[in-house]
Amino acid sequence: MSHERSIATVCLSGTLEDKVAAAAAAGFDGIEVFEPDLVASPWTPAELAARCADLGLTIDLYQPFRDLDSTDPDRFARNLRRLDRKLDVMAQLGTSTLLVCSSVAADAVDDRGRLAEQLAAAADRAAAHGLRIAYEALAWGRHVGTWERSWDAVRRADHPALGLCLDSFHVLSRAGDPAGFADIAPGKIFFLQLADAPHLQMDVLQWSRHHRLFPGQGAFDLPGFLARVLDAGYTGPLSLEVFNDVFRQADPARTAVDAMRSLLWLEDQVAGERPDLGLPARPAAPRLSGYSFVELAVDGVSGPRVGDVLARLGFTHAGQHRSKPVQLWVQGDAALLLNASVVRPAETGVAEVAALGLESEDPTGSALRATSLLAPVLPRTRGVAEADLSAVAAPDGTQLFFTRTVPDGWPADFLPTGATGDGGAGITRTDHVGLTQPFDSFDEATLFYREVLGLGPEEVTEIPAPFGLVRDRAVTNPERSVRLSLTAALLRRGEWSPGVPAPQHVAFGTEDIVTTARALRAAGAPLLEVPANYHDDLDARFDLDPVRLSTMRELGVFYDETADGAYLHLYTEVLGGRVFFEVVQRISGYDGYGAANAPVRMAAHRRARLATP
Amino acid sequence: MSHERSIATVCLSGTLEDKVAAAAAAGFDGIEVFEPDLVASPWTPAELAARCADLGLTIDLYQPFRDLDSTDPDRFARNLRRLDRKLDVMAQLGTSTLLVCSSVAADAVDDRGRLAEQLAAAADRAAAHGLRIAYEALAWGRHVGTWERSWDAVRRADHPALGLCLDSFHVLSRAGDPAGFADIAPGKIFFLQLADAPHLQMDVLQWSRHHRLFPGQGAFDLPGFLARVLDAGYTGPLSLEVFNDVFRQADPARTAVDAMRSLLWLEDQVAGERPDLGLPARPAAPRLSGYSFVELAVDGVSGPRVGDVLARLGFTHAGQHRSKPVQLWVQGDAALLLNASVVRPAETGVAEVAALGLESEDPTGSALRATSLLAPVLPRTRGVAEADLSAVAAPDGTQLFFTRTVPDGWPADFLPTGATGDGGAGITRTDHVGLTQPFDSFDEATLFYREVLGLGPEEVTEIPAPFGLVRDRAVTNPERSVRLSLTAALLRRGEWSPGVPAPQHVAFGTEDIVTTARALRAAGAPLLEVPANYHDDLDARFDLDPVRLSTMRELGVFYDETADGAYLHLYTEVLGGRVFFEVVQRISGYDGYGAANAPVRMAAHRRARLATP
């Protein structure tokens, strides 16, 4: 069966008016009304209900009601008075379910029988209004901190208007076991709140209030959790409740789309693992096998400069577009397009990654999947000869073209220049593309590539870069022929620091970096100078063969190693302000990107930039 | 005795070249060289040494050397080889002391005797170079996590080239007791690293690497810590080692000044509490008794608008500056200057807080103190009649004038308009000023007001505002006649959100907000509309007298209460894009600022802004 999709207003930034509009635009069926959002709104509850009805949204939950129970009879009486006021609001809202979370107050009831009595008394009030209460264990509740303890209270109260609210964060952050949901009496799960999170070693309240993520963005097993809840017979909405400092201040329209995509991802995962649960599912993402091209947007100033550098890197200007100022440069299986027809920002001389051509076993299927997952489809602005290129926009605006390269496909748009090159410098392929992300959309990007393109996310790491921490996460296909390195500056970076936005990069693979490096040096490629201290430190840290170390020092080659293998790499200077090239050799099973060397590279890029007028 | 003042390069953003320049410019005597900074630098160690000598900086420490000891003899041999390489670097640097921190590796030595042997072996290598090792317990060290354990190892090793490094973070984050420093053998504290931090419930490694602060900015008892270290006979540098995500990406020249100010604060505290230790000290900050004026920068568009609003708030345009377009508006003891002569940014129609007049018992002393604490002194751009106004710039650029108001002082610059007003609306004083801070300088601002002006910082709180979390910290004088509410958006806030930068505000006090509010409404003041839901929620939360609640609802008055008292307040709309007014009544000992109501106020301001073309 399919479930309604819902989102708590606290997930989104802005006023209640902004939030409701964003949720509706992203296709949600309902919302949870977070009380502070209503309190700050000029809409009366009835006006909010009418607005939601107009937008096709149901109001699935009113939340939260805090600190209901009390060991102090007077205070409990006051709490019931407060409850009555909120039940009045709910009646006007036309919503049936109130979230009551376990008390964190000093006067919270520890006695199980007394707690059940107080919950039943509250349920009586709700029932009198025709409403019901979903009781939730906060992970940091004073006496009720586990779902088992909340179920104990609900079971003892044994009131038809009292059930459970299960929240994946509160259960999984305490390593709770969803297998036990099978013991919950049928129909007693009144509501389900879904949130993912990264594994963090910190106070669980702070973790919950600042660092939750949408499903698929964190480290929790949300598919397993949801499957257990559905096994227990839950038929209500799948509702997101994510407190996150970044989403709190980001464009709510975007966040809502990200949120919806996370629910679709979750449904897809559960549908794939547990088809018996009958969740709607879409076909798996068509397999991506590699890069067909990487396209750089250039202009009349940056284009010739980048072309000159590509030539020195051993690339050949093999083709010229039939009708547009687009050059095709190739070496081995690596192909770059220099496109001077893209509308550029006001600055001149900029070069940046504008598009990726991704080789798909089913380009149309890839594009349809992206569309069904709310990726913006790009207008077909290309000429007829390119009619078969379907493209969508990634969260950072990079265009993604799904290709199936055949001779009369997109390469036919390019007239051969006749240039054959001199055999190149040993570059054989595109290894990875480094895309710098706006920090606001870093987690959105991870989920986008995961769900839309079927790329798997690696661990999140943080680089202590010279101009502030940089968050880093790669997404890859299983064969590692499509690798994207996503990075974002953790804070805004002061105006004084270089490269805002930080440059992107394209990394090319070679099987012999020494030979390639010598060829590049001989050709006068603008390679980045590596400080001598760096190789002195390599010498201290690793047992490197002295000749090999000496060669790396001579050629400006960086080095990293893990238990799996080694990584040798070098960089060009930044070109056109926004892009540089890397050449890499992977030895054995090295699967990373030399992140340990990134701070040295960044400092060197900064120096090169300062040295250039 | 006085101690050298030093700073670890890791405290500062940028390349090593940037960091050294910033440390020297702020007046530090020396630096700790953080190894990754050197590794990324094109300067050879000898070149760095020469550069530091040119700038008058000593190199006091090379750090860190990690994971020295090992249960695996081969690995320990490799670690000694690595040590030799680093000792070579130190010899070129001309620095005598290497920081070795306790191992976090799986092969770390647990056996106390064996650990002491390995440390002694390392000390032998250092001694052979004429160098020495300062051994530090990382709070998360595998076996050595307390200073007592590190002292045990050093004591057992009993090597003249081996001593302790004490780091206030590692000791105080684990609630270590500095009283025990008295047991450390004389001369065995080789180095002292100072860092403050907020109290956080999180993994201590993450706490240390991301959230350290300069002394005076956090919650640790740094003065007590330092006194104990000095009691133990330490004569070396007072050196700051602060890992902080914000400082990592902020202008290093500013951060270095902030850092120096923190050491001066620390010295002042210790000198005050323990004069016997002979630290240099400056006289205490002259007492501030209140606001003499608040000055708003306006222009030809915003000035008349703000003046009109002030008139409706019951202010009288009492004076006009003799030579400049500056108006003096007064009511009770509250005085506002509307200054149209300040050079404004390109936008027109802006009004913002430009300056505060702070009544000082010794204006010249206040200004001299500020100067000695590296506050930028502002050029005297005023006319001769204002010759006695000394001013400095706060970290957010607000001008602070130190005044001692007498009739022939600054008020004499203003010619009376003859207007006497109609008795006003009951406003009696300026209660507080709300200044929004750039997030990068939020902690700097706290320390600035604390050390330069002698204002005491309150707790840091976070407001879940509609457009992202807002950090909030007040600084006040003991009599509460000078209150500044400092706020900063935690993240950058999306472009879509309103009010970047967020508006500042000036809050005026009344003894009877109902009478004042009625007067303001009668005069047509542009008061902020408060949603009905807000007062409904007040009714649910508090046992308010129905008539009183009804009056608050009618007049748009917000309410907060604590155990100490109550706070009734109302707001105007935002004027000139950057400033609004608040009117407050404090009942009994209420000492806050109604932060719980801020989200409702912000949402209402946003709506009013959207409603205004």
Structural features, described:
The structure is a homodimer of 613-residue chains. With 613 residues, chain A is an alpha/beta fold. Chain A has 2 domains: 5-277, TIM Barrel (Alpha-Beta Barrel); 288-611, Roll (2,3-Dihydroxybiphenyl 1,2-Dioxygenase, domain 1), CATH 3.10.180. Chain A is 32% helix and 25% strand. Chain A is built from 17 helices and 25 strands. The longest helix of chain A is centred in the middle third of the chain and has 22 residues, at 252-273. The model of chain A has no long low-confidence stretch (mean pLDDT 94). At the A-B interface, helix 2, helix 4, helix 15 and helix 17 of A face helix 2, helix 4, helix 15 and helix 17 of B.
Which keywords apply here?
homodimer, about 625 residues, alpha/beta, TIM Barrel, 2,3-Dihydroxybiphenyl 1,2-Dioxygenase, domain 1, 2 domains, 9-stranded mixed beta sheet, 8-stranded parallel barrel, 17 helices, elongated, 3-dehydroshikimate dehydratase (chains A, B), 3-dehydroshikimate dehydratase activity (chains A, B), oxidoreductase (chains A, B)
